[in-house]
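Q: Focus on the shape:
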Amino acid sequence: MRYININQRIAYKINAAIKASGIKKVALSEKTGMPSSTLNSKLRAYTPFTVEEVFRIAEVINCDPILLLSDQPQRQSLAA
């Protein structure tokens, strides 16, 4: 199994959640107040996301921030 560090895992999960939400990255940048260049750098895992940034993104894309930060597979709903 190939090792992927936590920053890469979080960036991958956030990218997937952004795609699933249908929001454009430019709109996400505007709504979170994060410059586009910073957002893109973080989405490529060049620099890590802060917890505050993850929560702001999660709020905009209507996603549970805990799912973005956890090691568990991402699910649409926690309801059984």
